[in-house]
Amino acid sequence: MKNNASHITETMIEMIKVSKLYPPDVIALRNISLSISNGEMFFIIGMSGAGKTTLLKLISSMELPTNGLIEVSGLAIHQLKGYKLARLRQKIGVAYQDFKLLTDRTAAENIAISMEVSYKKPQIIRKRVKDLLAQLDLSDKHDTITGELSRGSSSALHWQGPSPIPPP
């Protein structure tokens, strides 16, 4: 008998009948259900006020749903606390259209900050930052304040800033 388990796709994000209400009576999301498989790219587009940011905040557990269930990698995120929630958030990559760079810090400092809060050793951080800047062809911007970077360089750096830590 042939094993067909290799054809089963693991669900990365599952939302079942999720709603989010804000006081006094703002309905941000109503009865949203979706399933995103591992390896699938998912884009959220819509009009201003459609609930795109709310959806991202719910998936990363920055906010809790008013109703419904949200699972990420098979874990009900509303049950995660402390270290487990922090580890999950490190694995979720969210790219906002406005750059989330600290404009008073250098390119290297912006990349390093997420590694620092993960308690990585300084020598590992320095090497990883140098390698990432080289990959982006931004080695010459190592000590440049991000507020002085071109839009293109800022964009490239933005993609590395949120999640420069290689998977465990």
From TrEMBL:
The keyword Chloroplast does not apply. Pfam families: ABC_tran (PF00005). One of its GO terms (biological process) is amino acid transport. GO terms for molecular function: ATP binding; ATP hydrolysis activity. It comes from the Bacteria. Residues 29-154 form the ABC transporter domain. Residues 149-168 are annotated as: Disordered. Keywords: Amino-acid transport, Cell membrane, Membrane, Translocase, Transport. This is ABC transporter domain-containing protein. It comes from Desulfomarina profundi.
